[in-house]
Write a structure and sequence with these properties.
- There is one protein chain.
- The protein is built from 11 helices and 12 strands.
- A hairpin with a 7-residue loop joins strand 9 and strand 10.
- The two termini are 35 Å apart.
Length: 395
């Protein structure tokens, strides 16, 4: 069986009838803990994922980006026109155009290239394949036209601009940092211009599984946005602050206890999730630094409960295909392990932390319910996007 590198090189050569000169790899992202905190300048733990994208690339002489990706629409993009287009929202073409536009705005060079891309990310994985694609495209432009000068944070910021301004999905910077940096990182977005990124080791004897519970998380942007909007509304209406990070914990619980005209209990619960989730992130970070599996799993359990009970983002329709059903089933066997919603929620994927002693019953229960293809063991990718030059420089 061919490796991803061998397959992408072979397919590039077949499709473009030419030899590729560069090879790139990038993983998706795992949101370990910190559900819906980044858009209010909060905290989270994020990791690179072993599932990802693989690309063979060659610089072209024209100003056209031509991308063939297995299972996706072919992309032809003339870089002479970089204005955003509403009809391209939620398309890969919009992402490429947005990355190129931000590079130009940031005084970096762009130019044409041909690329063939393979993916090992299973459908509905919820590990930010869009962010991985954005950072990958930014890095290709970086290597081909800017001598690889961009930092990991610059790659993440360019990718984030593309997603919010061109792809049309409001989000924080968590996903893009997760894929650009790789490894496990503690993120604190108190200063949005210079977020804190602290590298951590994951040395716990706990396997990580993603379980796709059936329903697609596509077309749920309005639900994700409602969480952010509710949190910001509470910050402004109850506390006259721009976001919840500007509200101290003591002030929050004093202020939230009294009725406020026009503020619902659901909005208050979502705001409380944010306040408490930041503490859970700090607890999980401390547990990782001490290699404390019990403390880490306890924080994960509390986070999972809060997302279900306070955020209400574990179901958006049929219970049988909802993340909530997955969480309920996982919790029947994970007495030592833990699980929680993964990412935006409402549909799609849950993340499960499974000890060896519970792996067999966990796999039996979850595969019976969702199928073997929807229960995937993943690892942590220690690097962000990596690059290999396939040509020998002339002496």
């Amino acid at each position: 069986m061919l490796t991803p590198q061998e397959k992408t090189i072979q397919e590039f050569n077949r499709i473009f009838e030419n030899d590729s000169t560069h090879y790139f790899e990038i993983g998706g992202r795992l949101e370990l803990i910190g559900n819906h905190t980044d858009h209010n300048r909060g905290k989270c733990l994020v990791a690179g994922c072993s599932l990802g994208l693989f690309a063979s690339v060659k610089k072209s002489a024209d100003n056209i980006v031509h991308i063939v990706a297995n299972g996706f629409d072919e992309i032809y993009l003339d870089l002479d026109s970089l204005n955003g287009r509403a009809e391209e929202f939620f398309t890969s073409k919009a992402i490429v155009r947005g990355v190129a536009a931000k590079l130009v705005l940031s005084k970096f060079k762009i130019g044409g290239f041909d690329a063939y891309i393979e993916s090992t990310i299973f459908s509905g994985a919820g590990i930010s394949s869009s962010a991985a694609f954005e950072v990958l495209i930014a890095r290709i432009f970086d290597v081909l036209y800017n001598d690889g000068k961009l930092t990991k944070m610059q790659l993440a910021e360019i990718a984030h601009y593309s997603e919010t301004e061109y792809f049309g999905k409001p989000c924080g910077l968590l996903d893009q940092i997760g894929v650009a940096f790789g490894g496990v990182n503690y993120l604190d977005f108190e200063d949005l211009v210079n977020p804190r990124v602290e590298s951590l080791d994951y040395k716990l004897p706990i396997s990580i599984y993603l379980v796709h519970t059936g329903a697609s998380h596509a077309n749920l942007t309005h639900l994700y946005s409602s969480i952010k909007d509710d949190m910001l509304f509470v910050a402004k209406r109850v506390f006259d602050k721009k976001d919840l990070r500007a509200v101290s914990k003591d002030d929050f619980f004093k202020g939230i206890a009294y009725p406020t005209d026009g503020v619902s209990e659901q909005q208050k619960l979502r705001a409380q999730h944010y306040i408490d989730e930041n503490d859970r992130v700090d607890a999980a970070r401390e547990a990782l630094t001490k290699h404390d599996a019990v403390g880490f799993l306890n924080a994960i359990r509390q986070s999972g409960f809060s997302s279900s009970a306070f955020l209400k983002n574990t179901m958006a329709g049929d219970y049988n295909t909802s993340p909530q059903r997955g969480l309920d089933l996982a919790n029947t066997v994970l007495k030592d392990g833990a699980c929680r919603i993964h990412g935006g929620g409402f549909a799609g994927t849950i993340i499960c932390f499974v000890k060896d002693c519970e792996e067999e019953p966990f796999l039996r229960v979850m595969t019976d319910a969702f199928g073997e293809d929807h229960v995937v063991k993943v690892g942590i990718r220690e690097s962000g996007v990596t690059h290999l030059c396939l040509t020998t420089p002339s002496k």
